[in-house]
Prior knowledge:
This protein has helices at residues 57-70, 99-111, 149-161, 172-183, 222-233, 237-244, 254-281, 303-311, 333-339, 344-350; strands at 13-17, 21-30, 33-43, 49-50, 53-54, 77-82, 87-95, 121-127, 139-148, 165-171, 191-197, 202-208, 211-218, 290-294, 315-317, 324-325. It is of the alpha/beta class. The protein has a domain at 185-318: 2-Layer Sandwich (Nucleotidyltransferase, domain 5). The radius of gyration is 20 Å and the shape is globular. The structure holds adenosine-5'-triphosphate and magnesium ion (MG). Adenosine-5'-triphosphate is lined by residues 18-21, 198-201, 221-223, 226, 241, 244-245, 295-297, 299-300, 342.
Amino acid sequence: MGFSFFSSPKRLVGLDIGSGAIKLVQLERVGKGYQLKKFGVKPLDSELIVDGTVMDAGRVIDIIKELVEEQDLQSKEVAFAVSGHSVIVKKIQLPVMSEEELEESIKWEAEQYIPFDINDVNIDFNILESSDPEEASDQMDVLLVAVKREKLSEYTTIVMEAGLQPVIVDVDAFTLENMFAINYDIKQGEVVALVDIGASVMNINIIKGGLFAFTRDISIGGNRYSETIQREFNLSFEDAEMAKRGEKIEGVDQEALLNIIDLLNEKIASEVIRSFDYFKTTSSNDEIGRILISGGCSKVLNLVSHLSEKLNVPVESTNPFRNIEVSDTAFDPIYIEEMAPLATVGVGLALRAVGDR
Ligand SMILES: Nc1ncnc2c1ncn2[C@@H]1O[C@H](COP(=O)(O)OP(=O)(O)OP(=O)(O)O)[C@@H](O)[C@H]1O
Ligand SMILES: [Mg+2]
C-alpha cells in the first residue's frame, strides 16, 4: 500500500540478471494500468554465471551495456534481484511490536535464524498480515530476509559498472508475487504456487489469498537438461541447448533425447512435490489450487503436462504481460509470446518504484 497525491512515484527499470539470460523490462503507468515501454533479452554463455556466482564480470557488464544501448534506455535507475545460496528467507514469529521497534531489534532477533555471521549479511524484514484476521494473538509473523553482503556488492558493482544505478535489490521469488498481483485475480483463501524454473535455479513461491506463505529455491533448471544431453551425445553446450529446444542436431537419437528429457521432467516434478509436501506440513495441510509456471525451462517439451499429471493440480504457463498493454507496432507479438515465460522476474522488478518497500 502506498499513496502519492502529487505525482506517481518513479518506476524503476527491471534488470533480471539470470544465469541463462539477462532481461530488461521497463513499464509505464497509463491510467490505472501499465504499458510495456522497453523489453530486451540477451542470452548468456553458461560459464559466465555459474550457480549464482559471476565468473566473468567483464562479459556480464558488457552484455548489460549492449542491452541498455539496444533499448536506448534513458532512465538509469534499476531494480535487480538476487536468489540462491546467498539468500536466506525465514518466516519467524515474534511478539507483536511496531515496525520501528522491530527495525531496532531485528539484528538480534535474526541472529539465531541466519546460518552466516550476522555481520556478513544485510537484513530486511516484512511484518506479514495474518491470513486469519479473526485470530487475536500476541505474536506476529515476520518474513526475515538476509543476503550476503559479498553477493550484494558483487551484483551492485556489476550494475554500476554497466552505467546504471541500482536503487532496489529484491529477491527473485518475491518479484513473482508482484508480477502475479497485477496480472491475475486473487481469490480469497486460494493457494497458488508460483514456480519459476530458470537455467540454474527453480524458485518456488506459494501465496495464500494473495499473501506470502512459503518460499524455497532449489538448484535445478535448464542447464541440467543441456549438460546431460551434452554428455550423453558428446556435443558442445550450444548444440545440446538446441537439441533440448527441439532442433535436429547431427548424432542425436530422438528417442534417447526424449528419454533424457522425460527423466529430468520427472526429477523436477519430484522436487516440486517434495517442496509442496513440506509446505503442507507447515500450513495445516493447505491444498494448492493451481500452479503458475514460468522461466525459460518451463518451455521444455512436456514439462507442463508432466507436472500437472504428477501433481494432480492444474498447471498453466504464466503470462507476465497478461494485464500489461503491449503495442504490437513497437513489439513483435511472436517474440513477446516466446519470451513471456522468461520475463516474470523482470516484470516483477519493473513494478517497483523509488521509495516503496
Ligand atoms: N524454447 C526453449 N525450450 C527449452 N528450454 C528453453 C527454451 N528457451 C529457453 N530455455 C531455457 O531456459 C533457461 C533460461 O531461462 P531463464 O531466462 O528463465 O533463466 P535465468 O533467469 O537466466 O536463470 P536463473 O534464474 O536460474 O539464474 C535456459 O536453460 C534455456 O536453455
Ligand atoms: Mg531467473
